[in-house]
Amino acid sequence: MQKNHCPLCHTDKFNYYKAGDDYLLAKCSECGMVWDNNPPVNPTAIYQEDYYNNDFPKGGYSNYFQGMKINSQTFRKRLLKAETKLSGQGLLLDVGCALGDCLEQAKDLGWDNPQGLEVSKYAVKFAKNRGLSVYQGDLFNHNFEPNSFDLIMLQDMIEHTTDPIAQLTGAYQLLKPGGWIFITTPNLGGFWHKLLGSLWYHYKPAEHLTYFSLDTIKLALEKSGFSDVESKPTNNSMSVEYIFDRLKYYQPTLFSFLLRIARTLNFHKLVFSLWIGELEAWGKKK
Ligand SMILES: [Zn+2]
């Protein structure tokens, strides 16, 4: 199904650009939004067990389970930032919560009964087995009441969808007045994209369907009704092991070798805070 209108400003004025072999993306001539105008018919079909554990690190998660502990540090930092925004804790909904790592951190920090929403049947089952409150569904299919949540998090989620305004409007309705949305997503305007061009690791055909810059994520939030909107580059905590594992995509032999050395010399668990080309954005429900 062709999507020949900008998902943000709805104009039909756009140009194609090549984001890889056989990967054409549309870029809006008016607002700069970038999207895949020929997305899969059922975009969520791919998020099953092999998505969370595979040997092709550009798509899905490679060694997700090993990376878990490291992701947890990132989630913890984000939740602490949210506590500053909210002046405390509140009822949290993590949309696209995957296996529930962020919810685990929230519980650990003392957040009361954090909730998750996730399309993957496999991930929901996994998270429930960890004792987390996670429901299978998305922002259009769920049983939550409007005006329920103090904080809604969409972490590396919105780029997997085709209609960001509809997603954000759905989140807006679920927030209490005064509640906050927090988003992370790849930053199309960032340094790594400028450097790597079509080799940029966030270009994921059939998986990432919309691509944002600091400006377009702001526009999307404003068009969805949010106030106090801000966007800025963000960093992630990562281990040596995770970094080498990701770089295997570019240089399999070299980085498999370095990974083996790191494990042998036991520095694979060392953690860095890295700017990997993501952005974070905040918005408040009036
Ligand atoms: Zn546009």
UniProtKB/TrEMBL annotation:
InterPro entries: SAM-dependent_MTases_sf (IPR029063). The keyword DNA repair does not apply. GO terms for molecular function: methyltransferase activity. Pfam families: Methyltransf_23 (PF13489). Keywords: Methyltransferase, Transferase. One of its GO terms (biological process) is methylation. SUPFAM superfamilies: S-adenosyl-L-methionine-dependent methyltransferases. The keyword Methyltransferase applies. PANTHER family: METHYLTRANSFERASE TYPE 11 (PTHR43861:SF6), TRANS-ACONITATE 2-METHYLTRANSFERASE-RELATED (PTHR43861). This is Class I SAM-dependent methyltransferase. It comes from Okeania hirsuta.
